[in-house]
Write a structure and sequence with these properties.
The protein is mainly α. The chain has 14 helices and no strands. The chain has one domain.
Length: 295
């Protein structure tokens, strides 16, 4: 996509990472997770456990957005600090390797919407999940199936998406979970690990899939959307609804993306409902196939 030019001084201001801003976002996510775990520990009520699964998966998804920013070197100016913060608080807890993620994601930025975009073979693994045309009703029921654990095969496909390109891509998550898991087990908190895994296979997948529908599905470019507050809360955290702006200016951290939106008035902004409705009349496109006609 053709990028809008920004004055160098403005770009420098917008693109400068602030570790405390990144940490404030990631610590909020962890605070939500820990809070619901404490509620479970205090009550062990079935409804509280269900609430915890939903909240944990929702915040796991939010952590993946923070990991994404760190993958772009947007957590801190110092590369070592950026990578340390990112793997410790986001990537390794989600069992993802940093180098493999960067290889996949930077290729996506370089070849977005073309036959070389790695998102296409990733979506093809989930056939017929991303088939077009589709309806908002179908997307809703796919999310319900996610929450019910009926789409768990797509989680395995997601894990396969990111290659292990360095030893630390494998060792890092194993070491993180060996330490954290060992601490939890020593305090007889095995149920925390169980809830984490269940949340990943259900609530996380629901949030992840809903977000992906808003980004590149049905176009070879990026949907530019303006979601409602509850949509941002549930599946578009940390300004990930500014995905158009992120692709236009990938060096701008997540917390600056809303400000950057005002710098480009050429591309129209659509409601999320409008984007989902457009899928009804989309050209017939199997999951993972390049669209022949696009908006």
């Amino acid at each position: 996509m053709q990028r809008t030019a920004i004055e160098p001084e403005m770009m420098l201001e917008l693109s400068t990472p602030r570790p405390w801003r990144w940490l404030s976002g990631v610590l909020f996510d962890w605070a939500c997770i820990i809070s619901v775990l404490v509620l479970v520990w205090l009550t062990f009520h079935p409804l509280v456990i269900l609430l915890a699964i939903v909240v944990i998966g929702n915040r796991q998804h939010a952590l993946s957005i923070m990991a994404h920013d760190g993958g772009h070197f947007l957590a801190a100016k110092n590369k070592w600090l950026n990578d340390f913060l990112t793997v410790t608080f986001a990537f390794y807890p989600l069992s993802i390797g940093l180098s493999g993620y960067r290889k996949f994601h930077f290729a996506h930025h370089s070849f977005m919407g073309t036959e070389n975009d790695p998102e296409f073979p990733s979506k093809k693994l989930d056939t017929p999940f991303w088939d077009l045309p589709t309806t908002p009703h179908n997307i809703f029921w796919l999310a319900i199936k996610d929450l019910s654990g009926l789409n768990i095969r797509t989680l395995w496909h997601l894990i396969q998406t990111f290659p292990r390109v360095t030893p630390m891509d494998f060792i890092g998550p194993v070491l993180w979970w060996t330490i954290v898991g060992g601490i939890l087990l020593s305090f007889h908190l095995w149920w925390v690990i169980a809830l984490w895994i269940i949340a990943t296979a259900t609530s996380f997948l629901a949030c992840f899939h809903l977000r992906v529908w808003t980004e590149h599905v049905g176009t070879t470019s990026v949907h530019r959307i303006s979601p409602l507050w509850w949509q941002r809360l549930i599946f578009l955290p940390h300004n990930t609804w500014c995905h158009y702006e992120h692709h236009e200016w990938p060096t701008i951290p997540y917390w600056r993306l809303p400000k950057s939106r005002s710098l480009d008035n050429h591309e129209p902004i659509h409601s999320l409902e409008g984007v989902f409705e457009s899928f009804r009349t989309a050209p017939t496109t199997p999951s993972g196939a390049l669209m022949k006609n696009h908006q």
